[in-house]
Design goal:
Length: about 950
């Protein structure tokens, strides 16, 4: 193995359809109009010397190293800023150019430390490389004059250093921060000789607005910005391209290694989801994979109050199988089930649902999508015919209007957010519907045209009010509706939304959004050009989550914003493989490919393929499993890679259900909160230790490649095989590629997917089959999958969770950039430097009414439970609304949330909880116990509210 090297063409690709032909060093070259001479030369294999140029940012023309001569023109223009034109004759290497380049390089080297042998970038430094390219052998100016060689390092950032003594002021880092990331945290301060890169107002990087995405480090041509891991470990010597295991964007990375030690993660330029960009999590927060708290040996115990006992893999697997068999023998076939993981691969998820259906003999399988995006599957399948988003991420480049509702992309999906922000800076208009003033509402060079700060729980009323405006003001795309929609359902829907009770004026008291803003936003969405909707958990995690998804789908169909680039309905999936876990048949009523278990033909096909009879009745959802456990009929659970005791709502109910079971098997990297109630712990494997595929939020299937051997001996898919065999149902696979072959053979939308195809194409978006051998970036072109688009009546029904004198505030929850989900991964990295604890955001008016000051401990109470945390006073939330994150288990935000859920899918209503906030002296009683008993084998949350 060796390092995978990517070509840097110096300047970005031109997308022009017009071609031009020029001659460079005697060779005729044809390129798209707008291509720089530098890129044209590089595409022909002719590398012109450069320092300030890189193809991730626009040309700058400051280093003067890439000078060329053009026949018929005077001077020596910079090849990076000079466009290729028909008939140009260019020379890149002449005596004059050699002399000029050497002179330029001498100036750089005269103010640069000559510590190349001990520099961490030795062998990986563009300045060093270009000095050799131009033939520099001496520096005539010496090193005695003014210089920056003693400039002090900034080592405040936990992941990289900034050494200004090595800075050549090429501005690549500044431009990457602006153009790629869109944070504008860096600048060039000073003038002339005093020019230097500055974070914020000459602040340390850690205290500045820098979000540690790594774009500046990636762009730096010297060791000025350098990963601390490279400084500590050394230069990597081989690399493997794989896919990130954090959010649903699905960024591709080069895992660069020295031996079996991971040195750094470098975003892969050919990654079609991220195009060489990254965020702080994917780029830097991989240390959890080698964290000291990882459990590497299986453990068992008879009772959850017993200490864990390390055992061999053989004993753990045999004990698991014998317990499950015993339970089924005593309580019946349906007394056990499984939960698949949205962090594991498609192949591993497929195996778990196959184990449950074919090995356990029931359909009691569910996944974390139950508690996040199950309404997406229901809503989009009902209206359009498929349970997934309609576009690829690149589609946003063609959007004229972007409508973000119930999502916070800059924190939850930061790499895609950077792409979105670039389009907004280029002129797209923005609508944001969110109870909270998220960063997109106003950030550098971006401002929303409309912020609709609706009351939590009123999404349906808001979207229906927008539809009222569009229908009653004649803004419908009639041609699209007549051609593509079901006219009968459209007419019923149009009559429904036209009712006066759905007008913005009539719903203003419900939503809290001024009617004029709703009307303005609706008109902009309908008439502003190509309009795209992006939504997240702020849409789905409600009692009317499915209704809101269908209301959004109605809106897009009515305005013709579906079936082409720049438009569509786009769910931003939370976990790396939540789309894949749904695709693989993780729901109790559906086989892989979203086919119902009661369909005789489908079931018979799987019976033939798997060699056993299958149950035609849907199994239990996660909430039903817990209910049945409390009732005494559900006794055994296999949980792969999920932590339902922290992530699922109404924690007391979850823990009561887990505590009532006789055998809970947890397979994970760490002893998580669910493991407190487990009888068997099976070590899991990280994404760095396995082969397989992930499917991201745009339906893109990408390879996950093994970077190192599994630290606990087995990859997750191998553990599932061992359990199946011990249960008496043997599954014979020698490699995950064989599992994907079975998925492709049994699932029409995956028919053209194989590891070989992914190696050739890089990635594909399902459906990928004979009709679409290269995949389907845009869905529903020309027709909907279901035929005619189905308009659905979306009656607003207020949540049963009501505010009142005892609980007058509404709590809503969300994520923060530096942490991920329940924090199992990111809390075990330096990311906690940015977010050490969950805080409660509260408006100044509500804080003053309660005598709460910034930083005070407050008690947060609901009808379900109580916790304590510190207050953060801010006007980002409206009066009457409070907000917190859920990344830290010692806060347990879900102790507060209720058991109300979506009417169609049981997706919990995380986003609407009536609460009261009052001053507190510190953590609550159970939290103090949590801190005291940090040993996870003994830490048990109460199983019933006091």
């Amino acid at each position: 193995m060796s390092l995978v090297h990517e070509t840097d063409y110096g300047t970005p690709l031109s997308n022009s359809q017009k071609m031009v032909t020029l001659t460079i060093d005697g060779e005729r070259i044809t390129v798209p109009e707008g291509t720089s001479i530098m890129r044209a030369a590089m595409e022909a294999g002719n590398a012109i010397p450069k320092l300030c140029a890189t193809d991730s940012v626009e040309a700058y023309g400051s280093c003067r190293l890439c000078l060329v001569e053009i026949e018929g023109r005077g001077g020596t223009p910079a090849s990076c800023t000079t466009p290729a034109m028909d008939g140009l004759v260019v020379k890149t290497q002449t005596p004059r150019l050699k002399q000029l380049r050497k002179g330029v390089m001498e100036l750089y080297i005269s103010d640069h430390p000559l510590d190349c042998l001990t520099c961490s970038a030795n062998g990986d430094c563009e300045l060093q490389e270009q000095a050799g390219v131009v033939g520099l052998r001496e520096v005539r100016y010496g090193y005695e004059g003014d210089n920056h060689l003693v400039s002090k390092k900034d080592e405040s950032n936990p992941y990289f250093t900034y050494d200004p003594s090595k800075c050549i002021v090429c501005s690549r880092c500044v431009r990457a921060c602006e153009e790629v990331q869109g944070t504008f945290a860096l600048t060039i301060s000073g003038r002339g000789f005093e020019s230097r890169v500055s974070a914020g107002m000459n602040e340390p990087f850690l205290q500045s607005e820098c979000v540690s995405c790594g774009a500046c480090v990636q762009a730096c041509p010297t060791a000025t910005l350098q990963e601390k891991s490279v400084i500590e470990i050394g230069t990597p010597e081989h690399s493997v391209v794989t896919t990130c295991a954090y959010c649903g964007v699905g960024c591709s990375f080069k895992a660069e290694m020295r031996g079996d030690e991971l040195v750094r993660m470098v975003p892969w330029k050919d990654g079609k989801a991220n195009h060489g960009h990254s965020c702080v999590k994917g780029r830097f927060a991989y240390g959890y994979a080698s964290h000291k708290e990882r459990i590497l040996k299986p453990m068992i115990r008879a009772k959850i109050t017993d200490p864990w006992r390390e055992v061999s893999w053989e004993e753990a697997i045999e004990y698991t199988a014998s317990e499950f068999k015993r339970i089924q023998g005593k309580y019946g076939r349906s007394s056990i089930g499984g939960i698949t993981s949205s962090r594991c691969t498609n192949e591993e998820t497929y195996l778990v649902q196959k184990l449950v259906r074919a090995g356990f003999g029931n359909n009691n399988v569910d996944t974390c999508a139950r508690v996040c995006h199950s309404p997406t599957g229901y809503g989009l399948k009902t209206t359009y015919g498929t349970s997934a988003g309609t576009q690829d991420f690149d589609s946003v480049d063609d959007s004229d209007v972007i409508f973000v509702i119930g999502a916070n992309p800059t924190d939850g999906h930061p790499v895609f957010a950077s792409r979105m922000k670039k389009r907004l800076r280029d002129g797209a208009r923005l609508i944001v519907a969110d109870p909270r003033r998220i960063d997109l509402v106003k950030s550098p060079h971006i401002r929303a045209d409309y912020h609709l700060p609706l009351k939590p729980g009123t999404n349906v009323a808001l979207v229906t009010a927008m539809a009222h405006v569009i229908v009653t003001e004649g803004l419908i795309d009639e041609a699209f509706v007549r051609e593509r929609g079901d006219l009968e359902t459209f007419q019923d829907w149009a009559a429904f939304v036209s009712e006066e009770r759905h007008s913005p004026e009539a719903t203003e008291s419900t939503t809290g959004v001024p009617a004029n803003r709703v009307r303005g936003a609706a008109r902009l969405y309908a008439t502003g050009g190509d309009a795209a909707i992006y939504y997240g958990l702020g849409v789905t995690e409600h009692s009317q989550g499915s209704t809101t998804v269908m209301a959004i789908a109605n809106l897009a169909m009515a305005t013709g914003n579906i079936g082409r680039r720049g438009v569509g309905v786009n769910p931003l999936r939370g976990q790396n493989n939540v789309q894949g876990s749904c695709d693989m048949g993780s729901f109790p009523h559906e086989y892989p490919g979203y086919r119902h278990v009661s369909e005789d033909g489908v079931r018979e096909m799987f019976e033939t393929l798997w060699g056993v009879p299958l149950d035609p009745e849907p199994g239990l959802r996660i909430p039903n499993m817990l209910d049945a456990a409390v009732d005494g009929t559900f006794k055994g659970l296999y949980v792969q890679g999920e932590d339902i005791a922290q992530s699922d709502p109404d924690t007391y109910h979850v823990t009561s259900g887990l505590a009532a079971m006789e055998c809970v098997v947890v397979q994970d990297l760490f002893l998580n909160e669910t493991a407190n109630y487990a009888h068997i712990f099976l070590p899991g494997s990280s994404f760095l230790e396995k082969d397989g595929t992930f499917t991201n939020a745009e339906r893109r299937i990408q390879r996950v490649r093994k970077v190192m051997a599994p630290k606990a001996v087995y990859a997750d898919w191998e553990v599932t095989l061992l359990i199946a065999k011990a249960m008496g149902y043997e599954m014979d696979y020698s490699h995950p590629s064989e599992i994907m072959d079975e998925i492709a053979a049994s699932t029409p939308s995956f028919a053209g997917v194989s590891f070989a195809a992914l190696e050739e194409k890089g990635s594909v978006q399902w459906p990928c089959n004979e009709e679409a051998p290269d995949g389907t970036p845009i869905m529903h072109i020309g027709h909907f999958v279901r035929g005619k688009g189905n308009f659905v009546i979306t009656e607003y029904v207020g949540t049963d969770e009501k505010v009142g004198p005892r609980f007058p505030l509404l709590l809503t929850t969300g994520r923060i950039l530096s942490q991920y989900n329940v924090g199992a991964q990111t809390r075990r990295t330096e990311n906690s430097r940015w977010h050490e604890e969950d805080r409660l955001e509260i408006h100044p008016v509500d804080a003053e009414d309660r005598g709460v000051r910034d930083g005070d401990w407050v008690a947060l109470r609901s009808r379900a439970g109580e916790t304590s945390l510190r207050a953060l006073i801010t006007d980002r939330v409206a009066p009457g609304v409070v907000y917190t994150t859920f990344h830290h288990p010692n806060t347990q935000a879900n102790v507060i949330t209720t058991d109300f859920s979506d009417w169609a899918t049981n997706c919990p209503e995380y986003k609407v909880t009536a609460v009261q906030v009052s001053p507190s002296n510190g953590p609550s009683a159970w939290q103090e116990g949590y801190e005291e008993h940090s040993d996870l084998s003994r830490r048990i949350l109460p199983v019933a509210a006091e």
